[in-house]
Amino acid sequence: MSATPPPPESSALTIGADARDMIERAREERVTTVWDRLRAQEPQCGYCSLGVSCTNCSMGPCRIDPFGEGPQRGVCGADADIIVARNLGRAIAAGASAHSDHGRDILEVFAATAEGKTAGYEIRDETKLHALAEELGVTTEARSTQDIARDVADVMMEDYGTRKKAIGMLDRVPDARRALWEQLGITPRGIDRENVEMLHRTHMGVDNDYTNILLHGLRASLSDGWGGSLIATELSDVLFGTPQPGISKVNLGVLDEAQVNIALHGHNPVLSDVIVQAAQDEELVALAREKGAAGINLVGLCCTGNELQMRRGIPMAGNHLMQELVIMTGALEAMVVDYQCIMPSVTDVAKCFHTEVISTADKARFPGATHISFDPERGVAIGREIVRRGIMAYEHRNPDRVRLSTAPVEMMAGFSVEAILGALGGTPQPLVDAIVAGKIRGAVGVVGCNNPKVKQDYGHVTLTRRLIENDILVLVTGCSAVANGKAGQMLPAAAEMAGSGLREVCQSLGIPPVLHLGSCVDNTRILVLAAALANHLGVDVSQLPLAGAAPEWYSEKAISIGAYVVASGVSTVLGVQPPIFGSMNVVKLLADDLDDVVGAKFAVEPDPERAAVWIRRHIEAKRQELGLTAHDPGTIKLEDPAHV
Ligand code: BF8
Question: Looking at residue 10, what DSSP letter applies?
Fold first, then answer.
C-alpha cells in the first residue's frame, strides 16, 4: 500500500501570512479546512471537469467519452456540444439568479422603506434616487421622496417579471451595442424571464443547438449585469449611501483581542447595515464593557464586508478562503451570515471554538447555526439582538486559545462611479486625455473569487501588479479587492509600484493605481463606467482599450459576470479552467468566434504572468485600432516568444 503523501506546505496554498498561520493551526488542532477537503476529492471527476456529464433527466446520468472510444451521446441523443452548452447555460442562469434575487431583496426593503414600513432604513442618497427616477421615467417635480421612491420601486419590480421588450436601465448602454443586442436577439427582456427561459431551454428535448443555447446564456447574463445586479448596486447606494473613498484596514489582524469581535459575512447589506447601527448603541457598548471587553469590533468577510468597507470603512477580515480561518483565531464571538459564498463547514469549525454562527436569511439556513430570521420591519431590534448574542459569547472566549499574529494593512476603498467622476472634476475627459496621451494604456477589471485550486491571492496580486507596472489602471471588486488590499496595492502610496505614466496620474489625483469599486454586484459600476467612457467618445465599448480578468474564480455568479462583461464588449481572461473543454466547438465559439459576434471573447490562462501579457497585447491592439499611440515598451516584452 502506498503511503498518503503529506499535505503541501501552507506557503504553497496561500500568499497571506495571516492565512498561513491559521492553516498551520488548523493542522495542529486537526480541524479540517477547504484545502483538506479539496485534497480528499482528488482526483476530481474528469467528465465533470470537461463538462461532459449530464444529470438533467432520469434516463441519465450520462457522460460522453472525451477520447472518442466510449459513448458519444447521452441516452436522449445529446452530444458533447449540447451537454457542455446546457451545463454552462444552467450555470449562467444560477449565477444570474443569485445576483438578481439579491437585487430583489434590496428592492423589497427599498419598497417597504418607501411605504414607511421598515425600522432602521431611510433614503440616504436623494440625489441618486432622483437621477434613477428620471432615467426610469418617474416624475419627480413637486413630489415627496417617499412618492418618488414608491414609483421607482414599482418600475424596478416590473423589470423582474412583467412582459416587456427590454429592462429599464439599458439607456446607459451605447447605441451601437444596443443595436447589436437587438440584431442578435439578446436584449434582456425580464430578469426572471431570461433565467426561467434558460432552465426551460436546457430541459431535455428543447434547445439542441449549442450556439443558440449560449446566445441565450449571454441574454440571461445581461439580465444580471444590466438588471438584477445593477438594481442591487443602485438601490444599495440610495438606501445606504453612495460610496466615497476612505481608508480602512484588512487581513485577520483587524480582529481585536481586547474587543467583542463580530464578523459580517455574505453579500446583502440590508441586515449588516442595521448591525452597524446596533454596534454603536450605548447600552450594548456598556454591556460589552461589563463583560470585560473594551468595545464591539465589527469586521467584514466576502462581499457583505465589501459593502460595509465601501460605505462605512468597516475593516475587512478577509476574502472567500478566510472564512474558516477567521474562526481559527479563537477571537471571533459571532459570525453573522446572510447568503452566498458561505461554506456550510463554518458551523463545524465554530464547534471547535466559542464562536456562534448566526444565520439570518430564511432562504439560507445552516444546520448548527442559530437562526434569527431577518425582517426589515424590525431591522434595528434584530440587529441589537444579534450584537447582544455576540457580547454574550465573549464570556465563553478562552484567552489562551486566541492567536492573532498578523498586523493589519491599510487600504483605500469607496470608488463608486460618482466618486471617480468627482475626482476627475465631474467628467471622464481627464481619464480620456490620460489614455490618449498613453500615460494610462487602458483599464482592466480584475475581479472574482478565491479558489483553493489556486494559491490564494497569488493570481489576483500578481496579475494586478504586472498590469499597473505597465501603466494599466486596475479596477477591482469582490475577493480580488481584498487580495489586493492585503498586498498593500490599494493605497495612494502604491502608485510607486506603477509605471511612470500611471504613477503620475495617480499621484496628481491622490488615488491608488488599483481602485476598489465594491462587491461583486458592483461589477456593474465597471460596466457603467465603461459605457460612460464609450458614450463620451461616441464609440462602442468593444473599441476601448479595456479587459476583464477573473484569476481565481469559483462561483456560478462569476460565470454570469464573465458572460455579461464579454456580451457588453469587454474581452475577459479566466484563470481557472471552466468545464467546457469536452466540446471543442464550444471552446472555439467562446474563445474565438464570439469576437466576430459581440466584439469580445474569452481566454483561459492559469498563469497570471502570461495573462498579463495577453491583456497587454489586447489593450495595445485596441489602442492601435483607435489610432492611439503605438505601444510603449513597458515592462512586459510583448515580442518575447516566451510570453506568447
Ligand atoms: O460575490 S468574489 S467568492 S464573495 S462570488 Fe464570493 Fe467570488 Fe468572493 Fe462576493 Ni463574488
Answer: G
